[in-house]
């Protein structure tokens, strides 16, 4: 009789996750489909769709019995006390369940940032976006077509300290506005807890990765590079129209274009990598694409490898090949450019120094790559494999 009462009490409980718990839409990580969890200022965790189904319903209103019935209707399987106990224990250990003093209310954007966002709201309309994108494409096409002329005109300015100082100032101010662009786009789409420091060129939006709309995530990630590009526009107009065909203007057009376009290279931690990740709805894209390519090689030798759904296979294969080509090109270009500059100072040994420097930078870059989010729950690997196969 006591056990029955205890079970009734257990399944009658109505636990609640923290009100500040952020839950992402479904994203892919390699062969798996997952959701990300995070509380404000906390760590990021990942859960499976089944775990997300349960956690998203822990609202303090529905009992475990009611949620369990919904789960059984959806997945044709009933959860016992051990499943619930393990899940609730893990949520409690990570302080993801509601409790006294745990909730952190969102920090609203500052007044100045809200005013800037309000004044720039017209930029986020569809007609404005089309005009901006088309205009920038035309500008960059002209820059590429006249790159030789621009470089020839810019060379004298690069040897003048006043022009160099002005160029550095332009790049720094453009970097500041780059971060402001990210912040304005984040505020525009409802993000909070935006930490921006223009002096050290950093901007973090606590909940932008958890927005429901991929389009909004892409716009936020791309906003900085768009702002950099817009900074080049008046100088490009001055150059191509003949109003100011001097070396400094040419140098700004070239340097500003490189600064803007490099941001869109799809390598971590650049904005282009985030844009591609949001476009594909994926996390840990670089790591997982390399893992996928190596799994194909292992499969040729009869090794057991994870099953990937067709959309994931295509995305990971294309990005994985592109990643290797981009990294290889960057290494060769870095050695050629740095080695060429050092060759004029120390001779052929400059290429050896350049190679060593590029290897060190590449090693530090690999070491700085962020790890995977921590898992919550204990879905067996075999069950995850069955879920992956069922998606084919």
UniProtKB/TrEMBL annotation:
One of its GO terms (biological process) is proteolysis. GO terms for molecular function: metallopeptidase activity. Its cofactor is Zn(2+). The keyword Membrane applies. Keywords: Hydrolase, Membrane, Metalloprotease, Protease, Transmembrane, Transmembrane helix, Zinc. The keyword Cell membrane does not apply. The chain crosses the membrane at residues 129-152, 164-187, 218-241, 247-265, 316-342, 348-368. It comes from the Bacteria. Belongs to the peptidase M50B family. This is Putative peptide zinc metalloprotease protein. It comes from Jiangella alba.
């Amino acid at each position: 009789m006591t056990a029955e009462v205890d079970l009734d009490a257990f399944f009658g409980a109505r636990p609640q996750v923290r009100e500040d718990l952020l839950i992402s839409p479904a994203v892919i990580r390699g062969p798996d489909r997952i959701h990300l969890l995070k509380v404000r200022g906390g760590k990021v965790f990942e859960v499976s769709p089944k775990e997300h189904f349960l956690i998203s319903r822990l609202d303090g209103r529905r009992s475990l019995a009611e949620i369990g019935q919904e789960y059984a209707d959806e997945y044709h399987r009933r959860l016992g006390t051990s499943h619930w106990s393990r899940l609730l224990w893990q949520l409690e250990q990570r302080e993801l369940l509601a409790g006294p003093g745990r909730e952190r209310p969102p920090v609203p954007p500052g007044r100045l940032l809200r005013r800037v966002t309000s004044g720039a709201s017209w930029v986020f309309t569809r007609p404005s976006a089309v005009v901006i994108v088309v205009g920038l494409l035309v500008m960059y096409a002209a820059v590429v077509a006249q790159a030789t002329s621009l470089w020839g005109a810019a060379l004298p300015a690069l040897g003048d300290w006043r022009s160099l100082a002005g160029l550095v100032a332009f790049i720094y101010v453009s970097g500041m506005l780059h971060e402001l662009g990210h912040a304005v786009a984040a505020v525009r789409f409802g993000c909070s807890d935006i930490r921006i420091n223009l002096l050290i060129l950093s901007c973090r939006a606590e909940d932008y990765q958890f927005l429901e709309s991929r389009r909004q995530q892409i716009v936020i990630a791309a906003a900085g590079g768009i702002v950099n590009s817009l900074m080049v526009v008046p100088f490009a107009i001055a150059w191509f129209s003949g109003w100011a065909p001097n070396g400094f203007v040419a140098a700004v057009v070239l340097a500003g274009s490189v600064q803007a376009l490099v941001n869109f290279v799809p390598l971590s931690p650049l904005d282009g990598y985030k844009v591609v990740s949001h476009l594909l709805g994926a996390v840990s894209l670089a790591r997982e694409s390399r893992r996928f390519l190596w799994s194909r090689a292992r499969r040729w030798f009869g090794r057991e490898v994870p099953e990937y759904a067709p959309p994931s296979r295509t995305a990971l294969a294309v990005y994985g090949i592109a990643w290797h080509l981009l990294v290889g090109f960057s290494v060769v270009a870095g050695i050629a450019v740095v080695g060429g500059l050092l060759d004029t100072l120390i001779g052929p040994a400059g290429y050896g120094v350049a190679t060593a420097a590029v290897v060190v930078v590449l090693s530090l870059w690999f070491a700085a790559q962020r790890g995977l989010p921590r898992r919550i729950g204990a879905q067996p690997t075999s069950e995850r494999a069955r879920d992956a196969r069922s998606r084919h």
